[in-house]
């Protein structure tokens, strides 16, 4: 996964930009090890225990064109590389003649103008649930450290009309306006503010994520009764197209014995998902977007991730739990089909092993409450 944004420096048209927030310092994320870490599993997490990232900055772009379905174009006609999650995605887009398609679509564009300050926080991955909450909204938090929410317009590509949770989550920010561009809309922005990528996919800035958690909990009116959350929540991926638990029926009985209720995120409005997570003392799921809901959980609560046994790469939820001050537990599971890649494979969970791990984690909860 990308760890910094150094590639961006060569891609920027610096004559078209100025820096709103500028710092030469770095920030460091020191992660708390999983609470049930076994020595033989250390290699799964070793590379993520201490990470160093460039300082966060917001770019101020003068006279930029934003599109309903194309990258940002700067003065002089150059496409802005950080419209993509990293440089390799930008290069691939060009290799696949994306810039040719963008040029062809200019024949269909209709033109609009934004004279008030605009903010752009998305890249080509931001339309996914995890990437929206874990990355795009963190960039909005960064921008609003420098700008007044009631004075700016957030601009989103056309595809962001697909899911209600985009606009629902933005209600927590009190923005002047949120504009989803038309498919062939070309909007000229006199002043566009573009927060840079924070730390690369799967990494976080603690201050920004804590600010986001406070914002969401305030938005759902997490009262003082939630200072002692009590729900035990299992988020099922049975309706997902990948990374499901094929023997889920076997583990539901184990989960019920430990007091877990089951949530199907696909059938639950975002606001309700956040409320349930805020009330949870324990959140459990296999690797997938549902675990992003830990953003609403109170510090000191517990998260358990069911993960593929050999996966040393996908540590985004381990890192997020540590960033938020949550106790992270894990359970290793085997791929149902060894020929399917880690990111797509369904898993088989050992019910006995799940039961043992839950006893360990929940006994820890009980001890902490009586201490």
Contiguous uncertain segments of 5+ residues: 1-23
Report the portion of residues in β strands: 15-25%
| Helix/strand/pairing category | alpha/beta
Q: Total helix count?
A: 10
What characterizes the major β-sheet? 7 strands, mixed
Question: Can you offer a commentary on this structure?
Answer:
This protein is an alpha/beta fold and 371 residues long. It has 2 domains: 8-21 and 56-199, no CATH class; 220-370, Rossmann fold (3-Layer(aba) Sandwich), CATH 3.40.50. The protein is built from 10 helices and 15 strands. The strands form 3 sheets. Strands 1, 4, 5, 6, 7, 8 and 9 form a 7-stranded mixed β-sheet that branches. Strands 11-10-12-13-14-15 form a 6-stranded mixed β-sheet, with helices on both faces. A two-stranded antiparallel sheet has the order 2-3. α4 (129-143) links the parallel β6 (118-120) and β7. α4 packs across α6 and α7 runs parallel beside α10.
List the helices and strands and how they pair.
Blueprint: H1 8-11, E1 17-19, E2 26-30, E3 50-54, E4 58-67, H2 87-95, H3 98-105, E5 110-114, E6 118-120, H4 129-143, E7 153-156, H5 164-170, E8 177-180, E9 185-195, H6 206-219, E10 231-236, H7 248-257, E11 261-264, H8 270-278, E12 280-286, E13 302-308, H9 316-323, E14 327-335, E15 347-348, H10 351-370
Parallel strand pairs: 5-9, 6-7, 6-9, 7-8, 10-11, 10-12, 12-13, 13-14
Antiparallel strand pairs: 1-4, 2-3, 4-9, 14-15
Helix pairs in contact: 4-6, 7-10
